[in-house]
Amino acid sequence: MYYQKLDEFPQDFLWGAASAAYQIEGAFDEAGKGRSIWDTYAHTPGNTYQGTTGDVAVDHYHHMEEDVALMGKMGLKAYRFSVAWSRVIPDGEGAVNEAGLDFYRRLIKALRANHVEPVLTLYHWDLPQALQDKYQGWESRETIAAFKKYCQVLFAAFKDDVKYWVTFNEQNVFTSMGYRWGTHPPKVMDIKRMYAANHIINLANAEAINLFHEMVPNGLIGPSFGYGPVYPLTGDPNDVLASVNADDFNNNWWLDVYCRGEYPFFMMKQLQRMGIAPVVTAADEQLLKSAKPDFLGVNYYHGGTVQTNRLQKPVATDQQAKDFSATDPYLMQPKADQAQSPEIPAFNSVASPYLAKTEWGWEIDPVGFRVALRQVYEKYRLPIFVTENGLGAVDQLVNGQIDDQYRIDYLQAHLLAMKEAITDGVAMIGYCAWSYTDLLSWLNGYRKRYGFVYIDRDDNGPKELKRIPKASYYWYQQIIAENGQQIGAQHD
């Protein structure tokens, strides 16, 4: 749909930015903090890029006031951050570490003082190591009770100061990377265990939402999902069917549970046929049905293009299969050390012939952003909060400045797509760019930068950790000041 004039962003639209505790805080063993699975994983040789860790990260723990002051100067309306579970409850389920809780209390107070709405993420991948050791983490139902206690502590502490809460960040990503590909902790490569752990996390999500609605009646809560629309490579009906399959595997398996309280029938039947479906009890079904999110967080970076699965239509070359082995966890043939991870003949991921890519091979698709927002809102009719969207790049500091026009171009194209989606009728709460400052990339160290604010550090060490606003910082400042009126002005 083309419009001569686009609708304006809502007057109360939350223009924000995002981060995650492990990627920015540092202070990994200060003030009573316990170890997380990422502390352990990053300290194990060979697990991360050049051995990079979040021990110091960008030292937000000690620069918090400075960072929040920059947010206030920017005019930021919202800041999405995560709480490090092991900073608040070092062993995950025992005594509360008041010093850790106080850090987030001070952060929220500083945000409020700078007129920035805090958006609190309960879990952004850093499970306390003690729970991994004691219960095998998310593979045990015991962890549900621990998570519920952790949530109760935070709900009680911040129910009057935080309106917007996110339960889990990108459950589809951390379960796949942690239990299928073994590139995140706990470094498991077993797809059956992945689906079992994923189900337990779904139950924890439902428990958290129900508890929240009891304890924080004036707040809003929802999960944050890494969503990507799926395109068929051609008009061949077999490719179209493959895209329907891929949508079920990549999106509906999670979103139907979040928003409808039930697993999609097609996916469940396939997993049952293969003997890798999770065990779902009648009590589980009742719990999942009872939990109703208030909004849906959407993290968008790119979608995907697929064709008929490789068993029915072999790929042209081995290279094509290699190119997508890391982004298609449901189709690639199992490796020798993945004998317990059978192939699911549903679709085959391929490169889009229409899209450019970032330096890290991620397709750039702002139209897909509009497609994603439309698809999710039409299907589930929940207000959408874009909780991540951004460009990772190798920024260059030249004469004390960073000209990241490429990031401005990327974000501007995506903001236009979002404004078009609003004009289409999508109900939106806000938009949090990823990320506010540069931070530690889980798999790419400190060289892959996303922030509006440059941090003077690299993979070799923290340097002076000086904060330097980039060109994109001042651009976004203007976007916020004018409530996005300049986006899509050419339509008028």
UniProtKB/TrEMBL annotation:
Q: Does the keyword Hydrolase apply?
A: yes
Regions that span the bilayer: none
GO molecular function per UniProt = hydrolase activity, acting on glycosyl bonds
Q: Which SUPFAM superfamilies match?
A: (Trans)glycosidases (SSF51445)
> Is Ribonucleoprotein a UniProt keyword of this protein?
no
Keyword vocabulary terms for this entry: Glycosidase, Hydrolase
Q: Name one Pfam family in it.
A: Glyco_hydro_1
InterPro entries reported in the protein's UniProt record: GH, GH_1_N_CS, Glyco_hydro_1, Glyco_hydro_1_AS
Question: Active site annotated at which positions?
Answer: E388 (nucleophile)
EC numbers listed for it are 3.2.1.-
Q: Which family does it belong to?
A: Belongs to the glycosyl hydrolase 1 family.
Record-given protein name: Glycoside hydrolase family 1 protein
